[in-house]
What we know:
The protein is an alpha+beta fold. 26% of the residues lie in helices and 27% in strands. Helix 1 (43-50) packs across helix 3 (110-126).
Amino acid sequence: MLRFGQHLIKPSVVFLKTELSFALVNRKPVVPGRILLTSALTMGTCMSWEKQGSSVCSSGQDGPEAGQTVKHVHVHVLPRRSGDFSRNDDVYKELQGHDKEDSPDKWRTEEEMAAEAAILKKYFQEN
């Protein structure tokens, strides 16, 4: 059995398992084919800690109907805190349009990104 939060998952519903993650089918899918991916790492905990958030949401994008603008499958992990958006789901509207206006003067510097990566790297090296 695998632990998924408060649930125990039978191996028969898991279709992918690695040292650091596993994927399973959903018992009550919103749309046919819905799956769940989970990590053995404490990514949510470290993202919340570093960004002073109390929760984390994620959005996977593969294809234009899913809002993908970078032609490579990827998942956004977003630390969240109470009141960061007036309506909780507005975060997805923000994601949908955030790179429509892609101006280099709005980008972070390589140094800023390297500093953040160094902080986060320690969490994954410890696990």
